[in-house]
Design goal:
- By secondary structure, this protein is α+β, with helices and mostly antiparallel strands.
- It folds into two domains: 6-78; 83-231, Immunoglobulin-like.
- It has helices spanning 6-23, 41-78, 93-104, 168-171, and strands spanning 83-91, 112-119, 123-125, 130-139, 149-157, 162-165, 179-187, 196-206, 209-223, 226-231.
- Strand 9 and strand 10 (226-231) form a beta hairpin.
- The termini are far apart.
Amino acid sequence: MKTFHPRKAIQCIIISFLVIAIAGCAANGRGMAQGDEDCSAAKSAGAGALIGGLLGAAINGRDGAMKGAAAGAVVGGLGCMAMNYHTKQVRSAAQVNKEYQNKHDSLPDKPVVTSYSITAPKQVVRGNNVSVNSEITVVDGRKQSVDRVEEKLFIVDSDGQRKQIKSKEAKSAGMNQGGEYQNSFSFTPPNGVAQGNYRLESEVYVNDKLAKTAQAPIEIAYTNGGVAIALK
């Protein structure tokens, strides 16, 4: 039976709060130092690695320190991602509602996302934009119409750590009625992101309620001194 060490437990709690703070540096678009205009992936990843290493060491000595540093670097790097977002309505609410009624005789009680998918290029290089396209079709309900449609994009590492890639445009995209939409996410993988397997996860909300999800696995690997991201 292992002996409980209160001092180590306190260390873990304190360091955990610091890791969370660093990982969220991009939530408000700023870096760690007050006055930085942009989140620095390298600084965040480095700080994340340091704190992750301390946390790992407190839990499991040298082996824990190495694993913690790697995890901390991933969290810090992911915390600096932000994206541009664009949307275009290609079919009106009346058109998709009519199509649904022709197939099902009547509209559903509440709004329904009848189709949702994302696509992405197979490979991009670090420092270049990653473009992810999505298509959404949402119909009105008999008792409730579509008032707001919003998409969110997340990146998830192999350990299940999930970080939203935020965008001001996605929050005010103007998707305020039913119809068919073609949208695009665009972001640049920062230097601080570690190599490994990741997954893109997207969510579509209708009237502030989660309606549909989609995903695409990605692999980040070093090639010729750069980093290539292969979306499979």
